[in-house]
């Protein structure tokens, strides 16, 4: 039997680039860690691996047991990938609000996909709750493990290596870190490690302007996939971030398109939101400083959506 590395060994150790074309003169340098270089094209591979391995080690996911989760797509694809590599069946609850590529990718990796219909393809608080409710119902069956990404502490721990990689790749010079908030697990895990390395690092959280619940606003519909669930995530605390930046769907989409055209960085809407906020912070901080953020996933996940569909015509 083969005993060499599996595809799981390719999770992490993603490259970092410095933006050249989009950063005006007189600004801080902006570094982007390309999490799109993970096996499924998403930072969520890190979280999925930590959650599945943690559950298996604790005996909560038995051999032959089925993993159940609700997902905006990238988490589901990452969980399907890890489960396929380790031999676990996966049942994933998602919606037509999220790209067809993500749903097809989950199925290609062998997962059973349950789709909850949306209202006009928009992410809303009510849609996310229906997905969570359906996943909870499915997870009540014997022999299942409910990953529950909003509440699972292993998820945040999965991002600790990302923070250490980014610190070293930056030359140990980061003045601010910017990240959009979905479950809040990524920003929580990364911020905790970066503040251990340098307590002065400024952490900026990003949320959809249309659903600015972290800022005390009302929940609303938006199309920045994977972030802004319409409620304050259980893992979120005000202490995680020094500031919250609101970015609209239109701003996030336009920045994602500009990244593709001007920096050859092909990514999704959450990355567009991250970079929009990072550039704002870079203007505030000025020369000689460093702002770091993430390319959360690949633009290949969005080719059928209105983010890039017009570009292919």
Using brief descriptors, characterize the structure shown.
313 residues; alpha/beta; Rossmann fold; 2 domains; six-stranded mixed beta sheet; four-stranded parallel beta sheet; 16% strand; TrpB-like_PALP_sf
Radius of gyration computed on alpha carbons: 18 Å
Strand order of the largest sheet: 1-2-10-7-8-9
Class inferred from helices and paired strands = alpha/beta
Q: What CATH architecture of the largest domain would you give?
A: 3-Layer(aba) Sandwich
As residue ranges, the low-confidence spans are none
pLDDT average, as an integer? 96
> Helix and strand succession?
EEHEHEHEHEHHEHEEHHE
- Total domains: 2
Number of distinct beta strands: 10
Sheet of most strands: 6 strands, mixed
- Proportion of beta-strand residues: 15-25%
Amino- and carboxy-terminal Cα gap? 48 Å
What sort of overall outline do the alpha carbons produce when their principal axes are compared?
Answer: globular
Share in helix: 25-40%
Reading off the top of the CATH hierarchy, the class of the largest domain is best stated as Alpha Beta
EC number: 2.5.1.47
Keywords: Amino-acid biosynthesis, Cysteine biosynthesis, Pyridoxal phosphate, Transferase
Cofactor: pyridoxal 5'-phosphate
Catalytic activity: O-acetyl-L-serine + hydrogen sulfide = L-cysteine + acetate
